């Protein structure tokens, strides 16, 4: 499955950026600054599109979209535990477009395309409200990034796959500049990006481009010509990130050189969903998983083969063979084990013991 996010710089029906999109051939695309969509593109994708909201609350000439090769199977209303955030979500409804999609040959995924404004929430709308549970600690204003985070914090559970991506207008290098010059530059806020990234991590998301490449990969070309900031981000929940194969950006010589956009698309490829036989799925659900008390510092659960019925011993062996055949190898201290991820859990076998742990939890 290929997922991309891209700010298309107000692409019209005749923009050459659409040819680039079809060449990238995404299964799911989270797009920003889309003005008009060509007919041939509409025939390729199921689409959810809303006009973005301007600073005064009026619709802009461009919008935010989710494209999927497959079906949009349901709405994804965004809500928070705070009434004032819900009012801002309504104000920004064209900037945060969410839905539940089902790509071809894949299970349902909850997705949100994000176009976070380069200006903060109007302080007049926040007068008299305690915004401290949502506001960043190191920034005096509330931004769109905090609004969408509050909604995700309220909605994301460990049993679902989520993809959240788009033009976040944040970059770790903005904060480096802030430290150097103690001011906001380029009309885009700085100071607080690491906290935003940490918040997403604590919700169970990994930022694909930063995580896969283990470094900042710039996505934005400033009008002055500099390409040094990653202001676009693609966050996925850990069950998806465990299947990542590659994550890169589009060819800057083509995209910038041909003036297709001032942003590069983020392109992430994931291994296909690995459906398991129904009898193994039923085996996982039916049997009791015992918490490993003697290894509480590495929280996980286990099933001992010797304690199972003859039929379940056969399923234990079948599941173990499936893990060995289709799993992925990771190092744990000086040893390597083969893991297989299903939903929000990773499974592995050591001798006659089948283990499982919540994705991400065993590393905390």
Please, could you describe this protein's structure?
With 364 residues, this protein is α+β, with helices and mostly antiparallel strands. It has two domains: 2-270, Endonuclease/exonuclease/phosphatase (Deoxyribonuclease I, Chain A, 4-Layer Sandwich); 278-363, no CATH class. It has eleven helices and 20 strands. The protein has helices at residues 17-24, 39-44, 83-91, 144-155, 172-181, 193-202, 208-213, 238-241, 252-255, 278-286, 310-326, and strands at 2-11, 28-34, 46-53, 59-68, 70-75, 96-103, 109-115, 162-167, 205-207, 220-221, 227-229, 232-237, 244-249, 266-270, 290-291, 301-304, 328-332, 335-342, 345-350, 353-358. The chain has a six-stranded mixed beta sheet. Strands 5-6-7-8-12-9 form a six-stranded mixed beta sheet. A hairpin with a 2-residue loop joins strand 17 (328-332) and strand 18. Helix 3 (83-91) packs across helix 4 (144-155). The longest helix is centred in the C-terminal third of the chain and has 17 residues, at 310-326. The chain is globular and about 65 Å long. The chain starts with a strand and ends in a 6-residue tail after the last strand.
């Amino acid at each position: 499955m290929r997922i991309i996010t891209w700010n298309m710089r107000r692409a019209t029906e005749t923009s050459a950026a659409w040819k680039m999109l079809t060449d990238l051939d995404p299964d799911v695309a989270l797009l920003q600054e889309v003005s008009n969509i060509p007919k041939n593109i509409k025939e390729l994708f199921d689409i959810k599109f809303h006009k973005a909201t301007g600073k005064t609350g009026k619709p802009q000439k461009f919008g935010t979209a989710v494209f999927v090769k497959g079906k949009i199977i349901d709405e994804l209303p965004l809500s928070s535990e705070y009434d004032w955030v819900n009012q801002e979500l309504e104000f920004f409804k064209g900037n945060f477009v969410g839905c539940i999609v089902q790509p071809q040959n894949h299970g349902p995924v909850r997705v949100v395309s994000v176009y976070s404004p380069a200006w903060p929430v109007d302080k007049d709308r926040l007068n008299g409200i305690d915004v401290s549970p949502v506001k960043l600690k190191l920034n005096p204003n509330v931004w769109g990034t905090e609004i969408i985070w509050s909604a995700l914090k309220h909605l994301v559970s460990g049993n679902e796959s989520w993809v959240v991506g788009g033009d976040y207008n944040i970059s770790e290098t903005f904060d480096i500049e802030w430290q150097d010059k103690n001011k906001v530059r380029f009309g885009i806020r700085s100071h607080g990006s690491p906290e935003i990234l940490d918040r997403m991590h604590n919700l169970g998301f990994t930022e694909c481009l930063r995580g896969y490449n283990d470094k900042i990969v710039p996505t934005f070309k400033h009008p002055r010509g500099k390409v040094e900031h990653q202001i676009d981000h693609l966050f996925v929940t850990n069950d998806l990130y465990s299947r990542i194969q590659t994550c890169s950006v589009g060819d800057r010589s083509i995209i910038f050189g041909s003036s297709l956009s001032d942003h590069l698309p983020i392109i992430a490829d994931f291994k296909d969903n690995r459906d398991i036989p129904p009898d193994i799925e039923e085996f996982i659900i039916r049997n009791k998983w015992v918490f490993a008390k003697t290894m509480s510092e590495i929280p996980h659960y286990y099933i001992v083969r010797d304690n199972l019925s003859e039929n379940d011993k056969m399923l234990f062996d079948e599941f173990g063979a499936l893990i060995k055949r289709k799993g992925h190898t990771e190092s744990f201290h000086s040893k390597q084990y083969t893991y297989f991820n299903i939903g929000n859990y990773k499974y592995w076998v050591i001798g006659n013991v089948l283990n499982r742990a919540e994705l991400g939890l065993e590393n905390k």
